[in-house]
Recover the amino acids of this structure.
């Protein structure tokens, strides 16, 4: 018994040292100052002594395996402060444990079913109560909302020319972000309303689709009822990474794609030479949908290789068909966005996170945030699953390590969001297999930890976790209402905008306001602050004014004190009579008194996606149009459309225009 206990403690200490940073025991330090090495040393000594007592035959104590995460979570602030459980849940865990152990003593399967229901209802209630009657607005979520509307309003023909952003933007990042299949799914939610449709859709992708994915995987892998219950809880409560990327960073395209890759992985795990036609079709669909974020497909390479090598020709054929269609799409759609990273890596060899922080930090940031109950069960669960399941998990681990070597830290965390669900498979199998051998105290402790996983996840949707999401706050709603009531049509944002607008990007504003906006870029393009117009000081005032004239805005908007001071106090600019007319949050809106015509000589200007239409009362030899030129633009009513450089902006020029209706349109959408 002592040998089994020491062996289990050793495995737990090493795992804890990698993830949590290590324990510090000054008495036993022996001059070693690195905490991780101390924990690893203690773990190795514990394993060595345990093996000696067991005469070299490994044997683990199930009671110790369940009790170990609880003890270690209480022992170190660094682990508990960043991982799935926090200090505030220790009291709750203790109370739940007492209730289970001394009072209720209900059947475990019954109480787990009840808390799965509590998890579903509680998460939905907290989320919609937190969002309220406004719009979830974290990081990339407003960008996805706008991309969805671009997809649905462009007859599904891409790329689209959008005159509402930056005087005309060619939206090609729709491909790279995996927005297309998610945007088509959003079509069914649009009747719910402007804000409600997207709020419900985000919850569907982050939670409901996660639930359906975990349940589908359990059915494909043929889990029994008790294993399914445990896997549902561990899968839905697998990590904070999933909710970070779903609710905080808002990468809906990635999450959608990764879910289907997990289902494809489970199909490959359970596949044999007698696979049905339905399973082959399901695999193709899942691989195809997963390919819209191609890094997810790379996680399945070990499993795909196994199927191609060890199964029959018909199975090989469907896998080859799926990958031959999916991977080229993935390469085209998503490859360009990472070309910059790989180019820098080939030149400097220091792009990746691992080059700066080392392999230990790479592992810690991959595993940190994953449910500790999963982490401590996985090493033992590996002994209870098939080789195919091991290949599935190895694929995710290799992908995480590979991406961490060449890509920034964010990509590493992104892979970890679904690594937790993959790791929940062996964890659930192992926990269900040993549950009957646990003593009553450890059964209650394990059940309470599963319950606390549900409670922690519910509070994530209440915005009470370490990673919070933001909503469109009241000052910004007032700006949207004010803008809708304004007769002016074009707004210019000064300063580099990232998440300054209520925690999210600006991209969705034209859809909410039905006005034209100009900014450096409404979504992520560069972390480096770059101004869309030259900075106006005593020597460059004319350059600033020329750039503003080229953009031709009715209002200037900024939240930078630098720009507010220049607009308000610079004597040369002040002559143009900029007047502050509105204030919301940290932003000030300045009205530009000088007149400016977006299209001189024109009347009845109508702007739509992929189209600009106006009326000329008489023939004109040349008409300057203050919208961005694109090589795919064509014109009806004029002889030619040409690019014209104005103060650093490439705008549209029209030659030999006849009296009447003039129409500029995107030829790719005709």
């Amino acid at each position: 018994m002592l040998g089994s206990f020491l062996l289990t403690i050793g495995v737990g200490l090493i795992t804890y040292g990698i993830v949590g940073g290590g324990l510090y025991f000054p008495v036993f330090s022996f001059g070693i100052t690195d905490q991780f090495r101390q924990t690893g040393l203690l773990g190795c000594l514990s394993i060595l002594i345990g093996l000696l007592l067991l005469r070299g035959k490994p044997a683990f104590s199930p009671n110790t395996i369940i009790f170990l995460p609880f003890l270690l979570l209480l022992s170190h602030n660094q682990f508990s402060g960043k991982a799935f459980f926090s200090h505030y849940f220790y009291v709750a865990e203790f109370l739940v444990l007492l209730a289970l152990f001394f009072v209720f003593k209900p059947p475990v399967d019954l109480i787990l079913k009840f808390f799965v229901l509590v998890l579903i209802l509680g998460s939905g209630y907290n989320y919609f109560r937190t969002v309220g009657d406004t719009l979830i607005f974290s990081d990339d979520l407003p960008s996805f909302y706008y991309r969805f509307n671009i997809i649905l309003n462009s007859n599904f023909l891409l790329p689209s020319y959008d005159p509402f952003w930056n005087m005309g933007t060619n939206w090609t990042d729709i491909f790279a972000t995996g927005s297309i299949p998610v945007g088509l799914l959003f079509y069914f939610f649009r009747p719910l309303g402007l804000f409600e449709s997207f709020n419900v859709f985000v919850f569907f992708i982050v939670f409901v689709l996660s639930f359906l994915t975990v349940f589908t995987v359990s059915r494909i892998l043929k889990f029994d009822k008790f294993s399914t219950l445990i896997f549902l809880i561990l899968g839905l409560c697998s990590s904070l990474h999933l909710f970070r990327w779903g609710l905080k960073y808002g990468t809906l395209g990635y999450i959608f794609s990764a879910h289907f890759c997990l289902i494809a992985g489970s199909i490959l795990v359970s596949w044999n030479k007698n696979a049905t036609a339905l399973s082959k079709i399901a695999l193709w669909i899942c691989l195809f949908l997963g390919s819209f974020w191609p890094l997810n497909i790379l996680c399945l390479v070990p499993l795909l290789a196994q199927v191609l090598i060890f199964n029959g020709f018909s199975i090989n054929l469907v896998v080859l068909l799926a990958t031959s269609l999916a991977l080229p799409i993935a390469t085209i759609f998503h490859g360009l966005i990472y070309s910059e990273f790989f180019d820098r890596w080939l030149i400097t060899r220091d792009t990746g996170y691992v080059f700066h922080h080392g392999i230990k930090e790479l592992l810690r940031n991959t595993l940190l945030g994953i449910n500790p109950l999963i982490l401590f069960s996985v090493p033992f669960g590996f002994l209870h699953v098939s080789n195919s399941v091991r290949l599935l998990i190895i694929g995710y681990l290799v992908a995480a390590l590979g991406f961490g070597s060449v890509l920034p830290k964010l990509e590493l965390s992104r892979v970890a969001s679904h690594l937790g669900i993959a790791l929940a498979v062996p964890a659930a199998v192992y926990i269900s297999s040993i549950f009957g051998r646990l003593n009553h105290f450890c059964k209650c402790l394990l059940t309470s930890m599963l319950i606390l996983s549900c409670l922690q996840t519910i509070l994530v949707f209440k915005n009470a976790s370490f990673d919070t999401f933001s909503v469109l706050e009241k000052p910004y709603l007032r700006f949207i209402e004010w803008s809708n009531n304004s007769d002016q049509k074009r707004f210019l944002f000064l300063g580099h905008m990232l998440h300054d607008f209520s925690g999210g990007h600006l991209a969705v504003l034209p859809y909410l306001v039905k006005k034209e906006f100009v900014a450096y870029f409404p979504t992520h393009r560069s972390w480096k602050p770059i101004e869309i117009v030259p900075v106006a000081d005593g020597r460059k005032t004319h350059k600033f004014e020329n750039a503003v004239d080229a953009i031709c805005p009715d209002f200037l908007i900024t939240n930078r004190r630098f720009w507010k001071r220049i607009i308000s106090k610079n004597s040369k600019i002040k002559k143009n009579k900029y007047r502050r007319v509105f204030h919301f949050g940290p932003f000030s809106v300045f009205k530009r008194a000088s007149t400016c015509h977006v299209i001189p000589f024109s009347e009845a200007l109508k702007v739509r996606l992929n189209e600009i239409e106006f009326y000329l009362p008489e023939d004109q030899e040349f008409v300057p149009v203050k919208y961005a030129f694109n090589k795919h633009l064509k014109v009806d009513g004029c002889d030619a459309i040409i690019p014209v450089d104005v103060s650093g902006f490439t705008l549209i020029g029209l030659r030999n225009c006849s009296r009447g209706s003039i129409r500029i349109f995107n030829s790719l959408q005709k």
